[in-house]
């Protein structure tokens, strides 16, 4: 059902279904228009329920948007996991660790370019930091995107590619560089790049991160 389409109104759901239906509706709205598009009335209309139904599970728009943001972040994590799972067999553990690390960044950038609305929603944080905690943003393997990056960095240390004394805080440097490029590609002056150019830019940034850490 597309946004703006009014389906049959349902004011009851089987236990647990309504909350998930509202989050899925919110995700579809975010896909089309980013976090700004996730409002209670539009979400209930998308889900096919009366407006007041949302208040059974979400105190206000902020609570709903937080749940949608967390669900979008979990999709970021799953895309990163899929990028790692698709890697071909490596010659040795060092090569495997390096490939897993690079796949984290590649998957992150791929999600941003393929799902810009959801990417914006995933990183939406209210000005007052209400609902800012990441508590349900894990992928299939139980790790958030930040934890996937941390695990990949730990693998580099174990493989002898990253000195242990340079490991602390490396997540913040790597994340900042890749996230900055992602924002430039979807909302900044690089948004007009051809997909192949955007891919090359991503690989160059990951090269830079590898050299830097």
From TrEMBL:
PROSITE patterns for this protein: HTH_TETR_2
One Pfam short name: TetR_C_33
One example GO MF annotation: transcription cis-regulatory region binding
Domain of life: Bacteria
Domain HTH tetR-type: 16-76
UniProt keyword Flavoprotein present: no
Gene3D superfamilies reported in the protein's UniProt record: Tetracycline Repressor, domain 2
Keywords: DNA-binding, Transcription, Transcription regulation
DNA-binding region: 39-58
Protein's recorded name: TetR family transcriptional regulator
UniProt organism field: Streptomyces cinnamoneus
């Amino acid at each position: 059902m597309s946004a703006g389409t009014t389906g049959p109104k349902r004011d009851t759901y089987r236990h647990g279904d309504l909350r998930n239906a509202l989050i899925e509706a919110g995700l579809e709205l975010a896909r089309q228009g980013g976090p700004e598009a996730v409002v209670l009335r539009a979400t209930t209309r998308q889900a096919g329920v009366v407006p007041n139904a949302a208040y059974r599970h979400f105190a206000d728009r902020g609570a709903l948007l937080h749940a949608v943001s967390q669900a979008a972040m979990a999709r970021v994590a799953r895309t990163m996991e899929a990028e790692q799972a698709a890697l071909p067999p490596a010659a040795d553990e060092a090569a495997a660790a390096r490939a897993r690390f690079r796949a984290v960044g590649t998957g992150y950038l791929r999600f941003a370019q393929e799902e810009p609305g959801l990417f914006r929603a995933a990183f939406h944080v209210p000005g007052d930091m209400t609902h800012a905690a990441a508590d349900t943003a894990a992928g299939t393997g139980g790790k958030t995107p930040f934890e996937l990056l941390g695990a990949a960095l730990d693998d580099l240390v174990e493989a002898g590619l990253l000195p242990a004394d340079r490991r602390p805080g490396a997540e913040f440097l790597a994340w900042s560089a890749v996230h900055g490029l992602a924002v430039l590609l979807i909302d900044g002056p690089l948004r007009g790049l051809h997909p192949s150019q955007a891919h090359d830019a991503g690989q160059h940034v990951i090269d830079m991160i590898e050299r830097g850490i």
